[in-house]
Specification:
Structural class: mainly alpha
Shape: globular
Number of domains: 1
Strand content: under 5%
Number of strands: 5
Order of helices and strands: HHHHHHHHHHHEEEEEH
């Protein structure tokens, strides 16, 4: 009887090889400087939102349906195109290119290092400006600890979104999986707010991101725990994650804070509104050294994921 795994494993091995190639491209080139597809996608999303919300009634169901339509129009055709590209004879190269564009490891490293360097130089004004590139909260009044805390939180969350979650879906579904995940994640960042404007319109974007991140977020939290202070990370994850207002950010931030032995969370200003958030983690208040420690945690995690994926593919191939 022929093995069912035989035709599948070359595909898995090729995906791991493509992931390695895309990671090295990201490390070598970083993000495209002139035009990034996600920037263009964001502009399209703004236009689609304006069109769909034009004259929109206030009924929650109508706004949810409009948001679902917008999500479908923006995400599904792009994912279908990525799947078609991956099915061609040169599909392996297309998968490399798509993952390279979806990954944000080097960009995250560069932005985080810049904030840490600003704090080390005592330039709080520059640190506030540069951390504003990482977070959506108001940074103009943050003190040094607030800047460092915002940066560490963003690095831990973006480690999931721009690195581990993207890699997870790529290894499951190739370039199409990475594209679907990153575009859904981008729409959640744009539409998934719980303010009066987008509470219902952004419902589909927020729920799709929650579903797509169920597994990656917990694997990311486990990665942080394994590569940091394991006991503290697991304790914070178990005791604090459920208090966060996001089912996926909670485990990531709690485990990450515990792994770094730092306190994160607390009140933050978003779009002029003070949001009360629970405290996660334990230990010191955040400073510049924690920014670099968080970057190192994500970096080690990326190589651990690639190594584990490669070992699994090779092991099953020779089973």
């Amino acid at each position: 009887m022929p093995s069912l795994s035989a035709p599948l494993m070359p595909s898995l091995l090729s995906l791991v090889a493509a992931a390695l190639a895309a990671t090295f491209l990201d490390r070598l080139l970083g993000e495209p400087r002139r035009w990034h597809p996600l920037v263009g996608f964001g502009r399209c999303a703004d236009w689609v939102e304006r069109v769909l919300r034009r004259g929109a009634p206030g009924h929650p169901l109508s706004n949810r349906l409009r948001g679902l339509l917008g999500w479908s129009l923006l995400v599904l055709p792009c994912a279908a195109l990525a799947a078609w590209l991956g099915s061609q004879a040169w599909g392996w190269l297309a998968d490399i290119a798509l993952l390279y564009l979806a990954l944000g490891a080097r960009s995250l490293q560069q932005h985080g290092e810049q904030v840490a360097a600003d704090l080390a130089a005592g330039d709080l004004a520059a640190a506030r400006t540069h951390v504003g590139w990482l977070v959506s909260r108001d940074t103009s009044a943050l003190d040094e600890e607030g800047v460092a805390r915002a940066a560490v939180e963003s690095i831990l969350e973006n480690g999931n979104d721009a690195v581990f979650g993207t890699l997870f879906w790529f290894l499951l579904a190739g370039g199409a999986g990475a594209v679907l995940y990153r575009l859904a994640n981008t729409l959640d960042a744009m539409w998934g707010y719980r303010d009066a404007r987008r509470l219902y319109f952004g419902w589909a974007a927020a729920r799709s991101d929650d579903l797509l991140n169920l597994a990656p977020a917990r694997l990311t939290a486990l990665t942080y725990a394994l590569l940091g202070q394991t006991r503290g990370a697991l304790s914070c994850w178990r005791q604090q994650a459920a208090a966060w207002n996001s089912p996926n950010a909670g485990p990531v931030l709690a485990a990450g804070a515990g792994a770094l032995a730092v306190r994160l969370g607390g009140p933050a200003l978003y779009h002029g509104q003070l949001e009360e958030r629970p405290t996660v983690g334990a230990g010191d208040t955040a400073n510049g050294s924690h920014i670099r420690a968080a970057l190192a945690l994500v970096e080690r995690g990326l190589w651990l994921w690639l190594a584990c994926a490669g070992l699994v593919a090779v092991a099953v191939t020779h089973a």
